Write a sequence for this structure.
């Protein structure tokens, strides 16, 4: 019998703070015990990493959660292959801290170092270099998965390949990931040479990205989502190349944790608009170039621990979708119009390019442009999110489940042509449907809606 | 490499694991001892991978006191440099379960008190002969007073505190320090799901233990405010205390 605790574990958007029932194993034997308990419980069971997904994906209101954060050991590293075998609770912060000084880098990282490798697999996460290197699943050598039956199974592109493809981007629904073998790459430095330039409007942005895609290793655009009319889409394009060597003296690594809570303040279109304008102006007219520690380039928000609290008690949503290249300019334009028309105060929106489909059956990426932004919760927001879903579908796009809290089950099915394959694997690995989440129920991921 | 080795007794607990990491990060070698061999092998692999320091595993069962002489010999054998000891094991069953099941109460005492005295008694001559080294004994604020909700475990920890006091005096004469750390509630598997306030992170406790050992401190409350809390709790007259259920 595992010990279970009743505790509020909302998604990163802090929308639903109802208490849940969670175990927090410290040893593999305790994970097994918790899974055995959890599959017998009403509502089923779900693994959770560090809760950096925004919506209801790592939430299992009627069932049980297994918090994997304490399983954080790096089990081996092979200098020949670059493969690091890690327990699922190892975070990107761990990988950076341990391997950067040795000259090794994880080739794909999300925008927060607090995410775990289990979560990175379950969402097949992408970085600012997706065009070049693909997503996390492309660098996953193999996985060890604990099934609801209690059996463990190794999955790799050539070993149980369908289980592998279902688990990459599989939202935790194929089993509890115990271990992730990730392929690291050599890096000549831990410094990023970052170039920033101001962007006038959306056309300017697309033109800049078309060029950056071929020339830059990393690229990300920050858009002032409140700008309307001719200024719509104005912002900053940031590109980054790994430096050949660290500047001397080497830039000291950033402190890992800021042990303070960011105080709450009111978000209004006025204050946010001011912030966005200042953010853009900090880059001079003619652009600028600097060398920054990699962590600061990859994780700009991590220096404010618990920054999600600035959205206050009602919490917030994040919306992220990808629109295929051909329709991207039109689609992104319509999304931005809908957002600014709703006057939904939002900090900077992020625009990035993606290079192609992931290995997972439910992987998010496709070749195109991805737009992401925060929307503080309010009365008009559900309608706005429904409009954004409609626009995404109209333009052949896909919504990112790591961020989602509002997608419809039909919309979800329409966005995922391989959903049938995914369901077939689930019915084999988890015939009784013992793995579940609020998201899985909302999107009817298991059931055939037809 | 520092030439120091930490023998970690009860190496699967969250505090012990955090302590092993903090010690390895400093460059100390680590010898993990406990019952869950698979778990300790994982921790040892983690320390070697992260810090490049030696990390080994030895099977150890605190309750099996007959095995302790051979265990200590093996530990000495596996330690090239200076042997230091972090004693972190304990067994804390539910108090009410122990009230109805006396065998469970005795199991708690056997591991938490007898097991600790036994292994430390076997280690003491080794440490004396070495003429240096540090011992950290993880006690508990539960040992500071017999409180209704946790007095069987508390009594075992109280016994351990007294033993560690005497051992401190004995080993001090040979240049070995003994530090008793009394954590309040720690946020670990032991307290998960129990209604405990103010649970502190185990890695902060581990760093405090390592730091206190380096300074040769005698007694440390962690976090520090527990010294104040326990001073007050100890000051309550027994006549009143017996009516309380804190
Ligand atoms: C500031 C910020 C920036 C971000 N930037 C990016 C970005 O640039 N690119 C990107 O792709 N994503 C990004 N994300 C999203 C984030 O990377 C993902 O949500 C990621 O999955 C979070 O990992 P986690 O460990 O917190 O997982 P959780 O949020 O706890 O869980 C997410 C999913 O993973 C599953 N899961 C977790 N651990 C396991 C396990 N051991 N076994 C099985 N299933 C498991 C859960 O069941 C759930 O379905 C960002 C998030 C934040 C907060």
């Amino acid at each position: 019998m595992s010990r279970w605790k009743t505790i509020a574990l909302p998604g990163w958007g802090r929308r639903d703070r109802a208490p849940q029932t969670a175990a927090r194993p410290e040893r593999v034997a305790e994970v097994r015990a918790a899974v055995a308990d959890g599959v017998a419980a009403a509502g089923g069971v779900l693994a959770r990493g560090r809760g950096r997904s925004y919506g209801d994906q790592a939430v299992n209101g009627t069932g049980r959660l297994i918090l994997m954060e304490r399983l954080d050991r790096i089990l081996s590293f092979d200098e020949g292959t670059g493969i690091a075998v890690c327990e699922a609770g190892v975070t990107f912060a761990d990988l950076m801290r341990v391997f950067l000084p040795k000259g090794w880098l994880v080739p794909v990282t999300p925008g927060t170092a607090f995410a775990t490798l289990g979560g990175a697999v379950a969402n097949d996460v992408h970085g600012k270099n997706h065009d070049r290197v693909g997503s996390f699943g492309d660098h996953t050598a193999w996985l060890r998965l604990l099934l609801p039956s209690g059996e463990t199974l190794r999955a790799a592109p050539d070993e149980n390949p369908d289980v592998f493809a279902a688990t990459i981007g599989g939202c935790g629904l194929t089993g509890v990931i115990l271990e992730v073998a990730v392929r690291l790459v050599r890096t000549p430095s831990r410094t990023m040479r970052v170039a920033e330039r101001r962007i006038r409007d959306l056309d300017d942005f697309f033109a800049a990205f078309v060029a950056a895609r071929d020339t830059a290793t990393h690229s990300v655009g920050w858009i002032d989502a409140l700008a309307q009319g001719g200024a719509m889409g104005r912002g900053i394009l940031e590109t980054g190349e790994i430096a050949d060597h660290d500047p001397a003296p080497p830039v000291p690594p950033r402190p890992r944790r800021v042990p303070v809570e960011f105080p709450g303040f009111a978000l209004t279109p006025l204050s946010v608009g001011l912030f966005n304008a200042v953010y853009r102006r900090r880059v001079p007219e003619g652009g600028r170039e600097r060398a920054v520690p990699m962590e600061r380039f990859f994780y700009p928000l991590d220096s404010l621990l618990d920054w999600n609290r600035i959205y206050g008690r009602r919490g917030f949503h994040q919306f992220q979708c990808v629109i295929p290249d051909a329709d991207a300019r039109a689609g992104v334009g319509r999304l931005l119009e809908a957002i600014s028309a709703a006057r939904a105060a939002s900090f900077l929106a992020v625009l990035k390019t993606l290079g192609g489909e992931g290995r997972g059956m439910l992987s998010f990426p496709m070749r195109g442009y991805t737009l992401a932004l925060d929307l503080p919760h309010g009365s008009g927001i559900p309608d706005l999110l429904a409009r954004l879903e409609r626009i995404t579908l109209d333009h052949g796009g896909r919504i990112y489940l790591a961020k989602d809290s509002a997608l419809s089950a039909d919309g979800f099915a329409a966005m995922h042509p391989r959903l049938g394959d995914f369901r077939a694997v689930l019915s084999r690995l988890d015939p009784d449907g013992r793995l579940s989440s609020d998201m899985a129920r909302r999107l009817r991921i298991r059931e055939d809606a037809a | 490499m520092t030439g120091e080795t930490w023998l970690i007794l009860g190496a699967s607990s969250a505090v012990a694991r955090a302590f092993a990491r903090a010690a390895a990060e400093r460059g100390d070698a680590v010898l993990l001892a406990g019952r869950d061999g698979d778990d300790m092998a994982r921790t040892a692999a983690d320390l070697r991978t992260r810090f490049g320091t030696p990390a080994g595993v030895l099977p150890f069962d605190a309750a099996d006191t007959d095995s302790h002489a051979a265990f200590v010999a093996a530990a000495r054998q596996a330690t090239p440099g200076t042997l230091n000891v972090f004693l972190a094991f304990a067994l804390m069953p539910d108090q009410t379960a122990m009230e109805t099941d006396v065998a469970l109460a005795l199991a708690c005492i056997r591991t938490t008190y007898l097991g600790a005295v036994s292994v430390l008694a076997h280690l003491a001559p080794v440490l004396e002969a070495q003429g240096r080294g540090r011992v950290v004994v993880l006690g508990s604020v539960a040992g500071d007073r017999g409180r209704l909700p946790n007095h069987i475990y508390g009594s075992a920890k109280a016994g351990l505190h007294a033993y560690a006091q005497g051992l401190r005096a004995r080993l001090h004469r040979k240049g070995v320090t003994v530090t008793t750390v009394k954590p309040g509630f720690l946020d670990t598997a032991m307290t998960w799901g129990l209604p405990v306030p103010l649970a502190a992170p185990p890695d902060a406790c581990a760093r405090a233990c390592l730091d206190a050992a380096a300074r040769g401190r005698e007694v440390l409350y962690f976090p520090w405010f527990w010294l104040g809390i326990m001073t007050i709790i100890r000051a309550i007259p027994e006549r009143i205390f017996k009516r309380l259920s804190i």
